[in-house]
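for the record, two folds in this file. i put them one after another cuz i was lazy. first one right below, seq on top, structure tokens after. the second one comes after a little note so u can tell where it starts
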Amino acid sequence: MVHLPSIPSRNGSDNCADPALVMSVDDLSASYNGAPALHSVSFDVYRGERVGIVGPNGAGKSTLFKAIVGLLPHHGSISIQGASCRQSHTMVGYVPQHEAIDWKFPATVWDVVMMGRARQIGYILPPRKRDRHAVRAALERVGLWGLRRRQIGELSGGQRRRVFVARALAQQASVLLLDEPFSGVDAQAETEIFDVLDVLREEGVAVLLATHNLAQAATHYDKLMMINGGRMLAFGPPQQVYTPANLATTFGDRIALWQDGDQYIMIADKPCHDHDDYQHAHSHARPF
């Protein structure tokens, strides 16, 4: 049983004083090998917002992220700060699920973060002074400068997630997608990751984070998206999204919810900590 405090709306909140629209997704649909996997999803995200994406196994959370970064055939539009869909794919930082990365790939922490500068460097020229400065600044922001020469496979789970956040910082992305970053990490690592997310908020970076932790989603995010079957079922502030009707539509008999004064009481009858059904069909990716 989890007691969830009622969360006020972020409209007008000092945490996101600049209401500038940073990402607009309109009528986005995607498919795997011709099979529809995402259906007409539309939403807007503003500067510095933190959006939690929640849903059961096979809901389409990873599919949504892959469509946004251009890894899947898709229809509809994605615009980052008014840029075209093709340009916007390169303006998003993406941290895939831990299991989707080949941690034995011979790359150091420095190498992985420098990959975030590929768009600025190009494919032929070596890194310039400003690229090296950007990488150092990113690693210092996530507290990993001292591990810059370490091979990524030697890092702890929490450190590995922070490396990819640093890569997004070096990339100077205005939107960061994190797919289950807290899976398999301890409480200390989770706290460290949230500290980094607080830094991103201060810098105006919008973060979309897929999670199965419904209690955490209620207390740590400005907005929530409920998704199932590749369809967005609800989107908005947590206290508007967490309703018995939305939970029943999204999770079926897995979740029951009661409201007791200013608290929500949520009971999970079945675990919802699996990956998208489509994930198993794709091989491990290298860290770039």
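(here's the note) second protein begins now
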Amino acid sequence: MTHAPAIIKDQSRRPASQGRPLRLFRGAAAYRRTRRNDLMLGAILAFVAGAMNAGGFLAIGHYTSHMTGIVSAIADNLALGLFGLVGAGIALLASFLLGAACSAILINWARRHARRQQYAYPLALEAGLLIAFAGIGAVLPAASAVPVTALLLCFVMGLQNATITKISGARIRTTHLTGMITDVGIELGKLAYALVARLLGHPPLPTDGRKLAILLPVVGMFFLGGLVGALGFKHLGHAFSLPIAALLLAVASPQLRPRQTSTP
């Protein structure tokens, strides 16, 4: 009687161990959403936005993750008659809008044709654009790279913000903090008032601890990303975006891989 080679036993165990490095991100871009994976994806994308916003500022001298300052600059420059700067601001605004529109197109197309990948597609595209950001910095002279990378970063931020907005039902925004910090202040004020009302015997005030549990990690990850992005650009230049692109690919790839079919 012969015995089966030991290697067969090892191969039978291999599928259970495949993809272990991606297990943490397996559900982050899934089309079936929960509060937990919404929070995970929101925190990751806030980190990415903070890193690219801070690193991008050191690269081009402009913050690109939000449009408030850019729209204000357009108005200021128009009043001062600086029409070249007005045109540049409009181009950045248009690039952000195109990024948001691109996210909506990808997600809505995938909902009809590739539902499982509907959120993975924009994340993978964002990763590719961050790789392009590193390539532009390596190929073009600094003076020529600035306008191209500014447009690219605005497109990326529009793409990302629209993606997490659609995923979370507009509960989470990752590229700017004004609204989220305002909501944090509102919830903290409600908590403080509820404590006072309890001491005074007044009717209780409902508070939303779940909202704070989402907002505070997202704000914290944006700050952490900004610190990492600034240090990364200082030491690596444009190439600092490559590890960030790898992070996005790690989030998207579990949904992009074909499903394994079991064999009898």
